Records
---
Amino acid sequence: MDWIGLGIILAKIIFFLLVGFTTAGYIMNYAERRVSAFMQDRRGPNRVGPWGLLQPVADIIKLFFKEDVVTDRSSKVIYFLAPMIIAFTALSALAVIPLTDVLTFFGRAISVQIANLNVGILYIFAIASLGTYGVVLGGWAGNSKYSFLGGLRSSAQMISYEVSMGLSIIGVLMVFESLRLNDIVLGQSPLLWGFLPRWGVVVQPLAFIIFLTAAFAETNRLPFDLAEADAELVAGFHTEFSSMKFGLFFMAEYINMFISSAVIVALFFGGWQIPGISTAQIISFFISLGASELLSSLLTIFLQLGVTFAKIASFMFLFLWVRWTIPRFRYDQLMSLGWKGLLPLAILNILITGLVMVLNI
């Protein structure tokens, strides 16, 4: 790899880190409050900056300067490692998220994606599984009964729903015949019957419902936030954490929301694609308006980024919407839904998909 290629990769890494931190900050400290205020007929943040847009900056500065309280009874090494583990795994999963198609600039194939792994979707599941350790170790290291119960709940919940989530995408992989997220997105470009996008949600609707439900459980969001149930466990696994250690736990939750939304978009909603319009057609359109080939490729990237982020934003809004409308499950209901509801449906979806493919329906 030459210096230019290395510079391109570093630029992509910086871009995705900025996207991750900015998304976490503004969804966590601005959009969440705005949505909840709208649903409760309140104003929400409107003092710091125009329309309250600098509220996330103020909250982050506050977290940095808050006292970092470390309890005497905590296991110090693990106590410091736990928030780092969960933040590292959340940021690492961003590496394989495809935001645009591959375009050619000066003889180089470039896309807004750090690594186009041939096992991209498996990489995301592997990283998500490692994130469980951060939650469990955080719950154990604080040496508090509340934290410990939250960590136990979270480990059981995340492992249970990872099984259903993993099985739910088998049907998608069978249809699109690839583990690369890019290939899966490109496989959704044709139109069915000349008008209906061949998106994953169309060809695998049951898989989409299972995956979306499991995504709520994996991110510990309401109505599946039993690991942080304030009425029972104060704040659950991060009760004993303060200052930026708490901030890292909180940030990781919202980055995981972004990743879950991005994966849903890639698997089920065509990623960067506009139905019925290919990348080549978009470039040709800009060229017909008088733009050069280079400018047309740049405009295509910006357009595809806008399409991808619009789709991701719609699902992140869904995460916020559900939090403020649906009450929390009981823990037995949560586990029953995972093992007795979603798991059999995921297996049934695989059997139906295989039968359809064998019979060539």
---
Amino acid sequence: MLPAEDGEGVEPTLEALERQTHSPDEVVVVRHAAGFEVAIRGALEGGTEWIWLLDGSVAPAPEALERLLDAPGAVDALPAPVLLASKVLSPDGSLDPGSVPVPYVSDPDLVVAVFDRRLLPIRLARRGSLLVNRSGFERDGLPRTGSVFFGDDLVWTARLLKPEPGLLVPASIAVRRPASHRAAERRRRASVGAGLRLLLSDGLGAVEKPWFAGRLAEELIAVLRPG
């Protein structure tokens, strides 16, 4: 489990983990980038197949992990996903805007096939609740910047999902704690920085970059707009 974005404690998340219908084999609370690397390496050396990267600012619903683990079996006739993302909500039940993944729409046949199974193919994912297959770490190694969730979630997931599919699993739900105004503003600005790093990285193909540049320009305008 990763640090809370707002710097607060992770006790609510730990309590939510105790209520999971499918209990994690082990829970590791990460405090810094080096701890993240140690935890991931330990899990891989122990033979772990799926690693749940859970943000300390979200509380997963009791069936969150079980629904993520069910998803690969629902698409066994399609390419195996390397990443599965929960739907992250705000406390009022609306989608948390800072956690919404970017859909993958380049293959209409895949989109339809996956949608029929109540899933959604994604091209990028943001921190929240992500279940990552060990094959992703074995292929690409650990995130190049030290940690996926210390400001580089977009870059890391872009690289991870460039050759393999990822899925949003709407039946798997996590709720993000409300952030203070100051923390929310800091998060918006950090999102723009992450977008710039994404455009300069090798996570996106040449055809993809113009579209993402347009999205980034919209975010930048929103951040700079008074009020």
